[in-house]
Amino acid sequence: MLGRSLREPDFETKSWLRRRMSCPPPVLKLISASPFIHYTKCRGQSLGDLDGIPIAVKDNFSTSGIETTCASNMLKGYIPPYNATVVQKLLDQGALLMGKTNLDEFAMGSGSTDGVFGPVKNPWSYSKQYREKRKQNPHSENEDSDWLITGGSSGGSAAAVSAFTCYAALGSDTGGSTRNPAAHCGLVGFKPSYGLVSRHGLIPLVNSMDVPGILTRCVDDAAIVLGALAGPDPRDSTTVHEPINKPFMLPSLADVSKLCIGIPKEYLVPELSSEVQSLWSKAADLFESEGAKVIEVSLPHTSYSIVCYHVLCTSEVASNMARFDGLQYGHRCDIDVSTEAMYAATRREGFNDVVRGRILSGNFFLLKENYENYFVKAQKVRRLIANDFVNAFNSGVDVLLTPTTLSEAVPYLEFIKEDNRTRSAQDDIFTQAVNMAGLPAVSIPVALSNQGLPIGLQFIGRAFCDQQLLTVAKWFE
Ligand code: GLN
Description:
The protein is built from 15 helices and ten strands. The chain has helices spanning about 15-20, 85-90, 130-135, 155-160, 180-185, 220-230, 275-290, 305-320, 340-350, 355-365, 370-395, 410-415, 420-425, 430-435, 465-475, and strands at about 55-60, 95-100, 170-175, 190, 210-215, 260-265, 295, 400-405, 440-450, 455-460. Helix 7 links the parallel strand 6 and strand 7 (about 295). It binds glutamine. Glutamine (GLN) binds next to strand 3.
């Protein structure tokens, strides 16, 4: 069974409030803010689309008067004087800011395990079905240490929605950070087209790929939040003037017989779990049996995407992180021997190993003698990767159907094993290329694994055809 089967076994009641009362133990790391602090709407004002709707925000979006840390020592205590455009738009529509959510430090990671506040627990670790399965496993650890990662880096936002503490949450998506945790937490995770939603106030990871992402329980909700957020912003020159129909209501697709679904053959990688693979082909069969045309397509440069992303990401990181010098924002060490010594010690104390590692790699790729060979070459490969998608869509494909992650969520203790760290980069194989091409993509939950854990599949659309993409995803939901 696909799609709707996810509503069982723990979350069978339809009522949101009843669901909320039977939710697993609280898992969200509320970093700052208490609920409702921003709800200062005057009486008599007209209601916005999100009036009274609790929404959580990843802690890499600036929130006026509320600490914004990026889960890093470097920004502990930093209180921005302004709201990110997307936060302001949510508030303008009447949304209640529930809190700021945990993440990997500066959104670098795929597990939500590497922030200074500690890892995020996946609420599905406590589902009845999963616990029973684990009990049958003689090697399983005790319940306290035997829990699953949420995926990342927007894991706090995913946990918040998954545990019924809010209707929707903002994540950010640079290489999959909204879609990956959505897949692991049984949610819809939507990455809009690059340029459709403002990045102003989103603390940058990779400016040319970052996009604010949306996590919700269903596709319709994601579309409504997108309607509130989308649109040009004079404070972000990369936003485009695409016409958006508001409110952003999705039509119900009666039939899919006019659709052409592309299945990228290079996405069938050896690391893909057999369960995800079988769901992926069942989903393709479902479209076919309902009359859609399903064809195999080729995205020939897929195998270069992880390495290409690494070079471009770390290069932009090296440049972006230069602003954290102990003078302007957040942390400053006590050393006052010299300015250089202060810079170095501040950055050593402020950043974790992952961030420091990326700054080092990026600076290496940007060295005068390496720039052409690495950075410029990676930019050319990025163009080839983006063109692969253009060619697929030009051949008549409306949306691509792919897995979101290689497998279901893994236990934390397994994830942090040293030899699994490289696997974690590999886990972005289905999501990163989309960011390099600037396309919209959505992960939706399709079924539970044998372990009782959610598995998501991803739909990828043409640039700025976000509404068409979500309409197809809604049909499948
Ligand atoms: N896992 C990827 C990285 O660590 C993507 C992160 C993201 O999308 N924020 O760079």
